[in-house]
Amino acid sequence: MTFFRAQDPRLADWVEKNVTFPNSMVDRITPSTTPADIERLNRENGTDDKAPVYCEDFIQWVVEDNFAAGRPAWEKAGVQFTDDVTAYENMKLSLLNASHTPPSSEASGKWTTPCTIRWWLAS
To answer: Tens digits of per-residue pLDDT, 20-36?
Structure first.
């Protein structure tokens, strides 16, 4: 609201009464693209993309159930509604993303082994 208030206090008052900004969390697995993937994706799509990105079938979209003018029927597309997205964000960051960090960091040589082990044990 700070931005609105700095621009137009009356607009800020209206937004506070009439607008919501639901928090959301999306998890979608997008593997790194190999040269074989680039070849396959371009062949399948009839393109010449130098850096295509694809994703696996898994997707999770969680949205705070906080809408000013009624909730859209996004559950029909698989959206999960919740009063608080925080638990889903923490799960994603702690269980999914964190578990990928030590192996990928170690493979890239950016972290030292003791640092990685300490981080892994602390998680």
So the answer is: 999 999 888 888 899 99
Rg (CA), the chain: 21
Residue 61 near residue 26 (C-beta atoms within 8 A):
yes
What is the identity of the amino acid at 72? P
Six-digit token pair at 111?
Answer: 């972290």
Buried b (16+ CB within 10 A) or exposed e, 66-77: eeeeeeeeeeee
Please write the tens of the pLDDT for every residue from 87-97. Answer: 988 888 777 66
Asked if 31 and 56 touch (Cβ cutoff 8 Å), the reply is yes
- Look at the alpha carbons of 30, 36, 41, 44 in this order and tell me if their dihedral is positive or negative: negative
Does the predicted TM-score (pTM) go above 0.85? no
Sheet with strand 80-82: strands edge to edge: 24-28, 59-64, 80-82
* DSSP symbol at 60: E
Q: Which two tokens stand for residue 97?
A: 């993303």
pLDDT at 94: 76
